[in-house]
Amino acid sequence: IFGEIMYGGHITDGWDRRTNNTYLQMLIVPELLAGMNLAPGFKSPDSSKFDYAQYNKYIEEKLPVETPLMFGLHPNAEIGYLTQQSDFIFSTIMSVSGAGAGKGKGMKKEDVVKKMIEDFLGRLPADFDLVEIKSKVAELTPYIVVSLQEAERMNALLGEIRFSLTELQLGLS
């Protein structure tokens, strides 16, 4: 998986890929994780005593609850994140319901939503001009190919967002 998928797209020469896979076969062995802490208080089991199903069951049953410490963060890091998320959620609820911060006073809920849709449509960026971008490309390297694919996907996503917002606008009209 590492040699063919994770690195495979970046190594274009067959001999380099073969060399990389040989190194990975020598380095990535079951004993690599023996006794290693996978998370604080969660040691890797002995791989010689477990098959795939047992290993999977061990992880499902014994993996501790996610905490900021698991990711090397301070224990209070989660408090700040959760506070920001709850503030964002409640401000969104308040703005859509037409209450709070003076927004939407005297306006119907539908008018508030229409205004938000217009705001979203105004903030959407224009689609990428793929013809122009492709005309500037001298050589199709793997990175360029991926960038072009991402630009195509982004155009499709932007088109879907525009379509959905326009449909909502028409539904409210």
Offer a quick outline of the entry.
With 173 residues, this protein is mainly α.
Structural class: mainly alpha
Q: List the helices and strands in order.
A: HHEEHHHHH
| Sheet with most strands | 2 strands, antiparallel
What proportion of the residues is helical, as a percent range?
A: 55-70%
- Low-pLDDT parts are none
Strand order of the largest sheet: 1-2
Mean model confidence by pLDDT: 85
Number of helices: 7
* Oligomer designation: single chain
N-end to C-end Cα span: 52 Å
Inertia-based shape: flat
C-alpha-based Rg, rounded: 26 Å
Give a structural overview.
The protein starts with a helix and ends with a helix. It is built from seven helices and two strands. The model has no long low-confidence stretch (mean pLDDT 85). Strand 1 (37-39) and strand 2 form a beta hairpin. The chain has a two-stranded antiparallel sheet. By secondary structure, it is mostly helical.
Features:
173 residues; mainly alpha; two-stranded antiparallel sheet; 7 helices; 2 strands
Topology:
Layout: H1 2-6, H2 14-27, E1 37-39, E2 42-43, H3 52-62, H4 77-97, H5 109-123, H6 130-136, H7 142-172
Antiparallel strand pairs: 1-2
